[in-house]
Design goal:
Strand content: under 5%
Shape: rod-shaped
Structural class: mainly alpha
Largest sheet: none
GO cellular component, one term: plasma membrane
Helix content: over 70%
GO molecular function, one term: transmembrane signaling receptor activity
CATH topology: Helix Hairpins
Distance between the termini: 32 Å
CATH class: Mainly Alpha
Family: Belongs to the methyl-accepting chemotaxis (MCP) protein family.
Number of helices: 2
Protein name: Methyl-accepting transducer domain-containing protein
Radius of gyration: 23 Å
Number of domains: 1
Keywords: Chemotaxis, Transducer
Length: 114
């Protein structure tokens, strides 16, 4: 009876690990979209800066706006990179936990996608 209960708990733990890995991978895809938006915003700010420079005196105010947009793009990019590192670390840790469950308890969750 105790062994059955322990096996059930190990199975639940493994399922939780598998779910955590899948969730982190989904978050990583969303972060990738944020990085793409940041890149596009950066390009728009560069184009705006060039346009403002060509407008000379009339474009001075636009240069300020373009620089603010560039700063926001940079912050978004930096934050996305930091989140990617954290998510990658979380995936690695969760995968290790799943491997240890398999190694020591012989159970591998059927839906395990790594």
């Amino acid at each position: 009876m105790i062994a059955v209960k322990a096996a059930e708990e190990v199975q639940k733990g493994h399922e939780a690990v598998a779910e955590a890995v899948l969730t982190m991978k989904t978050i990583a895809k969303k972060i990738s979209a944020i990085e793409e938006l940041s890149t596009q915003t950066h390009m728009l700010s560069l184009n705006a800066t060039i346009g403002a420079a060509e407008a000379e005196q009339h474009g001075k105010g636009f240069v300020v706006v373009a620089s603010k947009v560039w700063a926001l793009a940079r912050r978004s990019h930096d934050s996305a990179e930091e989140m990617t590192v954290l998510i990658d670390s979380g995936v690695t840790i969760a995968e290790l936990a799943g491997d240890l469950l398999h190694k020591y308890y012989g159970y591998r969750y059927p839906g395990w996608i790594v």
